[in-house]
Amino acid sequence: MRRLSLSSRLALLFAGCAAVVSLCAGLLFNRASEAHFIELDQQLLDGKLIGLRRALQDVQPIESAARLTDELSRQADLSLRITGSDGQRWYDSSTQIPKDMPQQSGLATISDNGTDYRVLNAPLYPQKTDSPQLTLLLDITHHQHFLQRMQHLIWLTVGLSALATALLGAWAARSGLRPLRRMSAVARGISAQSLNARLPEEQMPPELAEMAHSFNAMLGRLDDSFQRLSAFSADIAHELRTPLSNLLTHTQVTLTRPRPIEDYREALHSNLEELQWMAQLVNDMLYLAKADHGLLMPKREPLDLAHESDVLLEFFAPLAEDARVKLSRTGTAQIEGDRSMLRRALSNLLDNALRFTPAEGEVRLSIDEQGKSLRVIVQNTGEGISAQLLPRLFDRFYRADPSRQEGSSEHAGLGLAITQSIVRAHGGQIRCESDAGWTRFVIELPKGN
After folding, report:
1. Strand, coil or helix: 340
2. By C-alpha distance, which of 404, 2, 98, 73 is closest to 235?
3. Model pLDDT for residues 420-433, shown as the tens digit of each residue
């Protein structure tokens, strides 16, 4: 079965609510009218009862009906029955009085041959125990007809109000849901070429403004991700074009004529370097792809960061000595993490710092514990990085150096992206700061469970 639309559901809900409210109001009015009629009948019968008692004050078993006839003639729809204390019927003012009558004192309602009566039983002489009983009957058929018409009117009102509310509710729901249809139209029109479409948040009702804001934010993230993906694909082609072109050209030149075996060996060694660089690039890309899909699962083992840092500094010491750069380390901390992954992250930062530190400069690695977390800072002296470039440093294939060379076999611009993936896999964050002649990469990591 086809599911009901939201507008139809709201219309039916409005109709149901209107029907329930109308029905409740009608029933309350009907009950109030019925109670009002009972109260009026009670007052009327009580008044007649007082008059009859006064008229029959000194009358013993019906010696004269004149007084009764005179009293009853004033109310055409009123009848009277007098019964002795022994149950014998003394007097009936009408032949239409029902045979079966309630015996208990007080007010009651009966129906006989399509006629409704209000019946009041009371003693003629309240002070006597063997007093005759008066039974007053009031024809209330016209009251009941009025209440029946009222009930019919109630049901008619309920039906009409439900129908009218359903139509108005459908119109109101359709008008109120127009912003949702606008959102749907924008969503249908979104494609890879139109991710810059946005909903006008200022024109949305308050209830949908937050949804529109979230929708626009989602489009912004999709647009940013698509732009990054497009740039990523272009960067891959950009990085692989030069080494592939070199391999093809070198191989074609080598095969143009017969050459000595040593020339072929030299050509193969040259091609091997390019192939090794391409293999490393592919491995790095696979590593980042695993990080994007949450497949980097670092091992958790106790590590002494001071020791791990010293091992790396010892490895980079000859390179720093040749570049006349001072290396130093301060602080110590214990952490649970993956040794090889953290070494790779710190190695990328140290290698990056050494490449951009001028002669007689300095590279510092500092470790600082802060409660349940710690900070590892790799900083170096040298020319700073502009604030506009800092957010892009961790993008893949991005190099802040404007003299970027295509297919450089040394650095493809993936080191910082890999470092960021490793830090995030350990539940941490990394950022870059550059001021006052120092460039700092700050890693914040939890110490462990």
Report:
1. helix
2. 404
3. 999 998 889 999 99
